[in-house]
Amino acid sequence: MANNYDASQVGVPYVRIPSFTLDYPTPGNARVEAQEVSAVKLANGEVKVIDKVGMLAFRIQSHQLAETFPLINPETGANLGASMSYQQLLVGITSALRKAQIDRDTPPAIVTPTEPEAP
To answer: How much is the pLDDT for 117?
Structure first.
């Protein structure tokens, strides 16, 4: 029996990935490991984890960067009709991380109040 990936149905168990690790030792090469769990959406909208299902692992290597994969709705499992390359994925993740680093390391701007102009 195939796994259900549709998280939109209340009371119907499905497989989800609540966490993953991305190891990115050199540009263009990455290893992804994800914990899969069986879960169920409750009537109040909360998600209850039933059990760990296993680990999913795959590599992205430099010769695969131009390959594309379909974008899939994480709530319903439906194909969104668009795709992304592995290079776009890695650039997007590393860009978001770099922005978070810059935001963390940049002190807030000091706003100096200005005097109102004389009439």
So the answer is: 74
